Amino acid sequence: MEIRVLTEADTGIFWAVRLRALREEPEAFGRDYEETKDRPLAEVAGVLREEAESADDFTLGAFAGVAGAEALIGIAGFRRHRGRKERHKGDIWGMYVAPEARGRGVGRALLEELIGRARALPDLEQIHLTVVATNAAGHLYRALGFARYGTEPRALRLGDRYLDEDLMVLRLEELEAVRAYDAAQVAGDEAVPFEQAVAEIGRDRPRP
Ligand SMILES: CC(C)(COP(=O)(O)OP(=O)(O)OC[C@H]1O[C@@H](n2cnc3c(N)ncnc32)[C@H](O)[C@@H]1OP(=O)(O)O)[C@@H](O)C(=O)NCCC(=O)NCCS
Fold it and tell me: Is the entire prediction scored with pTM above 0.85?
């Protein structure tokens, strides 16, 4: 499997996967398939082109070799907030793995790549996402260190049904503390107790 940033040249395959996600998983995404499906491809290409001009926003694709050809099997987007007071934050959007490729680590690999790229952005401190409270994807986010900081009741309405959404955040400095702690453990160093490491950065949260 290869994970890379999608470019304008990927517009067609990206949009096919994105629309499949919205059509087949209406409960997982805020965007509606019917409202999205007629968006001109040129507009989608424009977004991918703009992303290529700055590291702040990107869309990742996971590719697998299928019958000798490369197939896009998963996508995940990252968008940094723009304003001076909000540039320390960015959002994950559109996380999706095709059903036939699930349960094999593709989602985790996409997220790890996304977090790695976001960590490299100067002054980026927090990665946010929203996930429908009943969605099993929440397990994956928690496993990678995201913590829930709230729930929006009735965030989405599908016909006569309402779905709550969990608001989650990954604080990158906290992630650094966890990684440093793990590295010290592996190296057998005299490590700072984990609770102390977390307390030092002003948070009290169970280890992911
Ligand atoms: C969520 C999604 C992206 C996960 O992709 P995936 O490739 O199947 O995930 P992975 O195989 O990398 O699994 C990652 C971890 O999450 C856990 N996980 C995944 N699905 C799970 C489920 N249904 N229940 C519990 N845990 C689950 C796995 O146990 C795994 O943990 P591990 O690495 O410790 O074994 C995929 O299921 C999907 O596209 N769902 C529909 C769209 C969606 O809900 N997107 C999220 C919108 S916020």
Answer: yes
Query: Using an 8 Å Cβ cutoff, are 73 and 97 in contact?
Result: yes
Query: Under CATH, to which class is 125-208 assigned?
Result: alpha beta
Nearest Cα residue to atom 10 of ligand 1: 105
Distance (Å, rounded) from C-alpha 76 to C-alpha 97? 9
Residue type for position 191: A
Yes or no: domain 1-102 corresponds to CATH 3.90.190.20: no
The domain limits of the chain are 1-102, 125-208
Span 27-76, pLDDT tens digits: 999 999 999 999 999 999 999 999 999 999 999 999 998 777 889 999 99
In the reported structure, the alpha carbon of residue 108 is separated from the centroid of ligand 1 by a whole-number distance in angstroms of 7
